[in-house]
Amino acid sequence: MIIGSLSSRLVSVWLSYILHDFRPRFSLQRLSHLWSFSQWILVRNLGNYGATQTDKLLVGRRHEASVLGAYSLADEISAMPTGEILMPIGRVLFPAFVRVVDKPDELRRAFCLALGVQALIALPAGIGLAMVAHSAVPLLLGSQWTVAIPLVQLLALMNIPLAMSHSSGYLLLALGKIRLQAILAWIQFALMLCLALLVFPTGGAEIIAGIRLAVSLIAMIVLLVLVIHSVPILKWRDMIAHAWRPILASGAMVGCLFALNLPTNWPMPLQLLTEISFGITVYCIVILSLWRACACPGGAENYLLSTLGIDKFVMRFLFFSDRH
User: Fold this and answer.
1) Contact yes or no for 89/117 (Cβ under 8 A)
2) Is residue 3 domain-resident?
């Protein structure tokens, strides 16, 4: 694994020289400018690390090693649906925001589109994992890991506000608000410690996961407030307009999954496959119906369908009834 990781980094560096003609060279000309920015990046990253890793230290201190192992595994599993899907999107947000940072209207459109895409993907992914965790964990990890089910559910929900905060963080970074982000990261770290050590001094793994969920929700709201303050042309109604359809569709998916009554004697793989397929189908039907009811406005749905190359097919399907 170590050799594979090292080889991956070496190949990435080699490919960067092949794919781009820029050749870096040593220079101290912009050292002061770079350090004034990089030092706050370091401070922010330290705060983020503390805010995201303190929970594991607390769980390890309050429980035996098996519970810590279950918590760490649940944290990794819960981050996969939102993190792996949205990570490629996050990599292009910063340069996209930088290109339009001096054009308020375009910056607002770019941010709202990014927020809409993240809501369209992160909400059903995180909520869906929480809904099927009771089947997914025993099937994928074995019956000995059932203790991780409630942890996966809480941490899957926790990753939703983290995913929804991606665009806000990159926008503030493009605006040069790195010092503000660093302060927020350390406040989030301090809040996590205060709640875990002072308010819930004996709380177990599930309580700690719940604290992390609450802190991530607070951090997301604060980030959105900072974005609105930093971009006056951006309003709350702009964000709501790009997020309400995924929210309603995710709620419909949750209600239908709760109402789904599968036979208890079904094999676990068939049960999990049915729940996932049913949840995806309900979400897609509801989100497309809401989008159609709004006359198919430009936004996350249109962007995602165009990216997948199925926008024309879906549009013909949605408007098929109008021709009859």
Assistant:
1) yes
2) no
Give dist(CA 212, CA 193) in Å, integer: 10
Structural domains of the chain, count: 1
Q: How many angstroms separate the CA atoms of 70 and 44, rounded?
A: 28
- Token pair, residue 56, equals 């594991």
pLDDT category at 303 given cuts 50, 70, 90 is confident
What 3-state class would DSSP assign to 47?
Answer: helix
Note the pLDDT tens digit of each residue in 228-264: 999 889 899 989 988 999 999 999 999 999 998 888 8
Take residue 63 and report the two structure tokens written for it. 């429980």
Residue 290 lies in a domain: yes
d(Cα 209, Cα 297) in Å, to the nearest integer? 38
CA angle 143, 160, 111 (to 5 degrees): 155
Q: What is the DSSP letter of 146?
A: G
Residue 1 placed within a domain: no
Range of the domain at 157: 31-323
Look at residue 26 and tell me if it is in a domain: no
pTM of the model: 0.83
Q: Closest Cα partner for 149 from 161, 139, 134, 164?
A: 134
Give the separation between CA 13 and CA 24, rounded to whole angstroms: 12
25: left (phi over 0), alpha (psi -120 to 50) or beta: beta
Q: What is the pLDDT of residues 255-301, one digit of tens each?
A: 999 998 888 888 889 999 999 999 999 999 999 999 888 888 888 88
Is 221:215 a contact under the CB 8 Å cutoff?
Answer: no
- Alpha-helix runs per DSSP H in 142-204: 149-164, 166-174, 178-194
Find out whether 55 and 196 touch, Cβ atoms under 8 Å: yes
